[in-house]
Design a protein that fits this description.
This protein is mostly helical. It is built from 3 helices and no strands.
């Protein structure tokens, strides 16, 4: 796996508290970033689903459309 480094600035008091906590902050930050990325991806997928559902005309019968598509294949 290829890795890259990022740098952030935080207040000194936060750094002191982080040091006292004794956690693996690289791991914690990676997890937080991954969680945020997944939330973002889900949000975009939900937006796309809403957009597609908004384009479906009223009275559309999906089962009928599937049958027709299969009959013409």
């Amino acid at each position: 796996m290829s890795e890259t480094m990022i740098t952030i600035r935080i207040p000194k008091e936060m750094k002191d508290r982080m040091k006292k906590a004794g956690l693996n902050w690289s791991l914690e930050v990676r997890r937080a970033i991954e969680t945020k990325l997944e939330q973002n991806m889900r949000g975009k997928a939900n937006d796309e689903i809403k957009r597609l559902l908004g384009s479906v005309r009223p009275g559309f019968e999906s089962a009928r459309a599937i049958r027709e598509a299969r009959d013409h294949a």
